[in-house]
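Colleagues,

For the teaching module next term, I've prepared a clean inverse folding example: a structure given as tokens, and then the sequence designed for it. I'd like students to try predicting residues themselves before seeing the answer, so please don't circulate the second half yet.
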């Protein structure tokens, strides 16, 4: 499966002026509809709560996209489960599953971006325990039927029916992992698929996480489950155009978040490494991006790739072009290479 993810980065007009949050969200709906039209398999929206990333209610936007599409799968990328309520997350995505005719998915994360913790009154000292308990509860909710559960971070449930019920069994649920072995084992233990978020450095260094996931499943006596990859990128007609469009916005976005996220501010040299064959950025022509996706899916033993397209500062027009090239040229070429 080959999909697209977005964090709803604020788009700019053709003169470089930032658009309103409302217009950015309306543009995002158009991007999701186009993704469906050009053959993309999945469209995901990541939860954020900042001025640069105003997508705090991804499921609402996905519902709008669902109403105008009939094929593409739709989901989060990711939902910060630690600062949300598992019952409400389940209800929102089971509702999306109903609206879309069974096309919903959810990718759950601990929250590498922690803006939601103070917003909803959660203590960062509870970071690990919050996600552990809530991932366990969400796994119980996915099973269907009345739920009995008790933990320390949320009120217990006693034979509680949670609606709406899904029509065709549980929708796919993933845990997003950015480099924590405990999260890999947790995904295996609770019945989730594994999504590797690779945003810097060599993709090959994540191969041990795929292997750990498969070993854990085998030791638990569980059947194999999918492994996916999520990485940033941008597609344009040529390598040169893609890099020229992407680089200044990438540098500025990372510079702004570097202090709070512990990132190094990229240099032109580090950027060129990342867009090369061993880096984590999929920036280039359709052929360049397709070759890199196919190579890394093979290295990682993964069967799904999601390109995190877009970067704050890019125009809506540039994003529509990237989506069209990804669907009409990158995806067919990746399938050809993997065949």
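(Answer key — instructors only)
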């Amino acid at each position: 499966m080959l999909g697209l993810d977005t964090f709803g980065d604020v788009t700019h007009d053709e003169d470089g002026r930032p658009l309103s949050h409302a217009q950015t969200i309306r543009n995002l709906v158009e991007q999701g509809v186009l993704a469906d039209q050009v053959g993309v398999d999945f469209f995901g929206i990541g939860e954020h709560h900042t001025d640069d990333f105003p997508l705090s209610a991804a499921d609402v936007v996905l519902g709008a996209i669902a109403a105008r599409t009939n094929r593409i799968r739709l989901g989060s990328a990711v939902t910060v489960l630690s600062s949300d309520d598992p019952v409400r997350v389940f209800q929102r995505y089971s509702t999306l599953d109903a609206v879309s005719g069974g096309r919903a998915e959810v990718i759950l994360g601990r929250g590498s971006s922690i803006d939601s913790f103070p917003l909803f009154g959660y203590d960062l000292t509870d970071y690990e325990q919050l996600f552990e308990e809530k991932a366990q509860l969400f796994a119980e909710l996915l099973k269907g039927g009345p739920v009995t559960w008790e933990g320390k971070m949320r009120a217990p449930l006693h034979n509680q029916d949670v609606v709406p019920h899904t029509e065709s069994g549980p929708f796919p649920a993933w845990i997003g992992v950015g480099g924590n072995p405990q999260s890999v084992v947790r995904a295996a233990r609770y019945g989730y698929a594994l999504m590797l978020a690779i945003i810097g450095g060599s993709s090959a260094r994540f191969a041990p996480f795929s292997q750990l996931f498969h070993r854990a499943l085998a030791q638990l006596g569980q059947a194999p489950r999918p492994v996916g990859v999520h990485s940033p990128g941008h597609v344009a007609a040529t390598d040169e155009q893609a890099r020229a469009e992407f680089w200044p916005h990438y540098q500025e976005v990372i510079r702004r978040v570097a202090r709070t996220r512990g990132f190094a501010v990229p240099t032109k040299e580090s950027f060129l490494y990342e867009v090369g064959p061993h880096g984590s950025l999929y920036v280039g022509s359709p052929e360049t991006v397709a070759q890199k996706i196919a190579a890394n899916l093979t290295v990682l033993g993964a069967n799904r790739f999601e390109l995190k397209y877009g970067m704050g500062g890019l125009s809506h027009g540039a994003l529509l072009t990237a989506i069209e090239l990804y669907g009409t040229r990158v995806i067919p070429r990746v399938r050809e290479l993997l065949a």
